[in-house]
């Protein structure tokens, strides 16, 4: 198969669909790989790194799309890319179809095979291609939170680890899923006192077993949240209700109970946030202050660390890319039910129930 890696052209996107390690695996399996010149630069991978493992560098995005059976990228195609996608071409990337009718219509029109990272689903219901981005965001949440606790950026002026003779900072983590666990681990590693709240007792039991003793678990309810926000310096929002808006666990009136300079990092901002006063921000302008509480609500946190995010993402996408290249999409999806769940739009038809429902269409079986 010929596999194309275009440069991402969405604003501020520095990740790339494949690392040289991935190209190495494909060329080893006798596939041809075309990489657009400069595609990996934002993530620290240069043309010669790809050439050394057998890729051919092409000058333009148009050439990459025109010469490839399968396109592997990161973000959903934007309008400039719609016309480049070929009939019957496999496009393996994040799509988030339900949030864009224009994209859905364009992909239906293209008659391509659109396999979405975000709907590849394991038997236990987990989303293996989304997990690494939550891991990145969870860890980053503490790094960012620690920075905004500093006084010059209007934080409380607390060093999370404390020093001999001074108590460490306190971190409250809402949600003990992927984001929450990674945030708790990082905060604990810095020496902070961590409280992690969830409604899922199984998760809390698990955390209680594996975390050090300065990470304590608690049940998430309004009473406990109101109690903890009074004493914590940094609050991380990492709750998720699958397919729904995140619940407002911290309401506007609660901000006045927090110490001035408390920092909230609401990672769940992409699902509306779990704080009533959350509104999405960008890496250029990541924070705002309401009632003396610093809010960090960047909706694409992994975008700030493209090297780590690219490697983390491609580690998990590569086995599927190899299957698709070795077997073709029909056989690969027949043999791998997780990958089959990634099929969203196939040759001009929507094949994924929730997307069809969003646009009030009947899904078609493949
Ligand atoms: N901002 C970003 O850049 C970024 C990056 C990655 C993920 N995210 C988002 O972070 C959020 C969390 O993702 P995740 O992968 O950790 O999800 P997850 O499903 O692994 O974990 C969510 C946890 O929230 C818990 N929860 C549900 N209701 C709760 C409540 N009322 N109180 C406390 N806990 C509750 C669940 O029991 C679960 O343990 C999602 O919205 C995800 O989209 C954002």
Automatic annotation (TrEMBL):
Gene3D superfamilies: NAD(P)-binding Rossmann-like Domain. Its EC number is 1.4.1.1. CDD domains: L-AlaDH. The keyword Oxidoreductase applies. It catalyses: L-alanine + NAD(+) + H2O = pyruvate + NH4(+) + NADH + H(+). It is an enzyme of class 1 (oxidoreductase). The keyword Oxidoreductase applies. One of its GO terms (molecular function) is alanine dehydrogenase activity. InterPro entries: Ala_DH, Ala_DH/PNT_CS2, AlaDH/PNT_N, AlaDH/PNT_NAD(H)-bd, NAD(P)-bd_dom_sf. Keywords: NAD, Oxidoreductase. It comes from the Bacteria. Residues 4-137 form the Alanine dehydrogenase/pyridine nucleotide transhydrogenase N-terminal domain. Residues 149-297 form the Alanine dehydrogenase/pyridine nucleotide transhydrogenase NAD(H)-binding domain. Belongs to the AlaDH/PNT family. This is Alanine dehydrogenase.
């Amino acid at each position: 198969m010929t596999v194309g890696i275009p440069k991402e052209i969405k604003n501020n996107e520095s990740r790339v669909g494949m690392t040289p390690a991935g190209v190495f695996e494909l060329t080893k399996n006798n596939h041809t790989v075309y990489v657009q010149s400069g595609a990996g630069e934002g993530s620290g991978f240069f043309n010669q790194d790809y050439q050394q493992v057998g890729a051919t560098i092409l000058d333009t995005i148009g050439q990459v799309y025109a010469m490839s059976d399968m396109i592997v990228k990161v973000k959903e195609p934007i309008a400039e890319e719609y016309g480049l996608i070929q009939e019957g071409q496999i496009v393996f990337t994040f799509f988030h179809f339900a949030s864009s009718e224009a994209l859905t219509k364009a992909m239906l029109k293209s008659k391509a095979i659109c396999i979405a990272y975000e709907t590849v689903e394991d038997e236990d219901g987990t989303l293996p291609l989304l997990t690494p981005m939550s891991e990145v965001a969870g860890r980053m949440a503490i790094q960012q939170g620690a920075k905004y606790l500093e006084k010059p950026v209007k934080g409380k002026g607390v060093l999370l680890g404390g020093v001999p003779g001074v108590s460490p900072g306190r971190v409250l983590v809402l949600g003990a899923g992927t984001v929450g666990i990674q945030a708790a681990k990082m905060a604990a590693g810095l020496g902070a006192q961590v409280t992690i709240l969830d409604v899922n007792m199984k998760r809390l039991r698990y955390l209680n077993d594996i975390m050090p003793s300065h990470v304590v678990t608690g049940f998430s309810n309004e009473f406990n949240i109101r109690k903890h926000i009074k004493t914590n310096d940094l609050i991380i929002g990492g709750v998720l209700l699958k397919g729904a808006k995140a619940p407002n666990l911290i309401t506007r009136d609660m901000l006045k109970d927090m110490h001035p300079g408390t920092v909230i990092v609401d990672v769940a901002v992409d699902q509306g946030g779990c704080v009533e006063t959350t509104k999405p921000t960008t890496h250029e302008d990541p924070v705002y202050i309401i009632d003396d509480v610093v809010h960090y609500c960047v909706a694409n946190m992994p975008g700030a660390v493209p090297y780590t995010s690219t490697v983390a993402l491609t580690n998990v996408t590569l086995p599927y890319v190899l299957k698709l290249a070795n077997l073709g999409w029909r056989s690969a999806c027949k043999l791998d039910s997780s990958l089959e769940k990634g099929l969203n739009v196939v040759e001009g038809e929507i094949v994924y129930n929730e997307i069809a429902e969003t646009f009030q269409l009947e899904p078609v079986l493949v």
